[in-house]
Every structure is written in structure tokens, then in C-alpha cells.
């Protein structure tokens, strides 16, 4: 399954919380500021919603689109977060 990894660095706590809430509507948080999204058709909608809350001069949001084959190349060091269906996710 193709996957999008969305990470952010947001300076303000209020803006950060709003962005996290949007991302939780679409995917799963795998680290504090990293989310995985499996419904790639929703990425334009996510970008539009997230852009309402960020300050483009201070904040940074990154969208990484990963292919199905990338899952076989993952390396996890340390404790991997338990997820509802591990076969659907890639932890970076």
C-alpha cells in the first residue's frame, strides 16, 4: 500500500495542536511530529486544511510520498509503536 509520511516543525503550541488534530483525522501518529497516511487521495485536502494553521515564515511541513516497495527497506532501531494493523504501516 502506498504511504505518505507527513512531518512538521511548528514553533507555536496552538498552531502545532491544530495541525496535529487535522492529521489525526486522516492517519496515525507514529512519532510526536510524524504521521503516516494511507489514503493518498486525501493529500490535497490535508495540505489545504493544514495550510490554514501554519505560519509560512516560522513553520515547516514536509510530505513524503512512499511507494509500496519502500516498506521492505525500512529499518527500525528501538521500540516500534504498536499499530492496529502493522502490515499497513511503515515506521521511519
How many β strands by DSSP? 4
CATH class: Alpha Beta
Please list the strands of the largest sheet in the order they lie side by side: 2-3-1-4
Mean pLDDT: 85
Count of separate structural domains: 1
Instruction: State the order of secondary-structure elements, H for helix, E for strand.
Output: EHEEHE
The N- and C-terminal alpha carbons lie at a distance of 16 Å
Low-pLDDT regions: 83-92
Radius of gyration: 13 Å
For the largest beta-sheet, the strand count, sense and barrel status come to: 4 strands, antiparallel
The quaternary structure here is single chain
Helix fraction, binned, reads 10-25%
What name does CATH use for the topology? Alpha-Beta Plaits
From the helix content, strand content and strand pairing, which structural class follows?
A: alpha+beta
Shape: globular
Strand content is 15-25%
CATH architecture assignment: 2-Layer Sandwich
Number of helix segments? 2
Structure description:
- The protein is of the alpha+beta class and 92 residues long.
- It contains two helices and four strands.
- The protein has one domain: 2-Layer Sandwich (Alpha-Beta Plaits).
- Strands 2-3-1-4 form a four-stranded antiparallel sheet, covered by helices on one side.
- A hairpin with a 2-residue loop joins strand 2 and strand 3.
- The longest helix is centred in the first third of the chain and has 12 residues.
- The chain starts with a strand and ends in a 26-residue tail after the last strand.
- The relative contact order is 0.28.
- The C terminus is likely disordered.
Amino acid at each position: 500500500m502506498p504511504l505518505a509520511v507527513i512531518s512538521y516543525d511548528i514553533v507555536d503550541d496552538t498552531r502545532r495542536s491544530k495541525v496535529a488534530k487535522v492529521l489525526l483525522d486522516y492517519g496515525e501518529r507514529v512519532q510526536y511530529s510524524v504521521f503516516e497516511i494511507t489514503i493518498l487521495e486525501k493529500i490535497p485536502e490535508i495540505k489545504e486544511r493544514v495550510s490554514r494553521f501554519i505560519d509560512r515564515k516560522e513553520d515547516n511541513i514536509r510530505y513524503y510520498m512512499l511507494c509500496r516497495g519502500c516498506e521492505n527497506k525500512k529499518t527500525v532501531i528501538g521500540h516500534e509503536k504498536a499499530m492496529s494493523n502493522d502490515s499497513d504501516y511503515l515506521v521511519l
